[in-house]
């Protein structure tokens, strides 16, 4: 049995180039309880690259899951042990990304054509560590039609002992659509995910895809165990301020948008002292004042100044002043 037990009622998706460690620290100013996911990291990058650069994160980020890309069981076992050593809370196997680069490495969504291989990967990771092992996948790929192939895939990984599945309720087309188009063009079919929960009642099932608002998110919880939100959480991050109270019945952090920014100051100061450029952090906060008076000036000031050499906290203080003058 896994030692860690996560409450995945509300998760924020792994998003390439977006859900990095700086972004996750920002999100933690808004929600203590949402489960956060890293960008996908390949097993090759971990085994042959800079482990610290790929795996380091701040304690404030817990609960945080490491998403792995790979299909070689031995490499996944090694990576799972690394994740446990670095004190992640979960390991998630990517079986949903449709990009050409991922396909060429034979991982991501193409793994849905090999349910037994994915089951083997789950087994070796569970044997290698005591962290929860989960799988994120689509409802199908390419010419797969109907519920049958999806049920077969889930049955295999459930038998292997996966602790939860996260299902993006769209098919992935491995040829002819870009990753962006694969997030938008294939139609959503939530009913297939709901059917999985009926057929696998003991398996924790998280639904993902097209969830724009917290009302949308709440509506799914009558059918599945949790929801995962992606781009809406990134582009309108202040909605995360309601998550703890609404989904976990815990007190909200209760920060104004200004408090959120100022709460980041100690982290930003520490990162600047390490040589991190300000814009590597501030690029994630640009949506905080979306829909608010002065929000456009806030974004423009940061975009024009945070990338400059020597840029510091004064850039954020000046940007906040634009918002406050609009109140």
UniProtKB/TrEMBL annotation:
PROSITE patterns: UPF0034 (PS01136). Keywords: Flavoprotein, FMN, NADP, Oxidoreductase, RNA-binding, tRNA processing, tRNA-binding. GO terms for molecular function: tRNA-dihydrouridine20 synthase activity. FMN binds at residues 14-16, 67, 136, 168, 208-210, 230-231. Residues 12-316 form the DUS-like FMN-binding domain. Catalyzes the synthesis of 5,6-dihydrouridine (D), a modified base found in the D-loop of most tRNAs, via the reduction of the C5-C6 double bond in target uridines. Specifically modifies U20 and U20a in tRNAs. Belongs to the dus family. This is tRNA-dihydrouridine(20/20a) synthase. The gene is dusA.
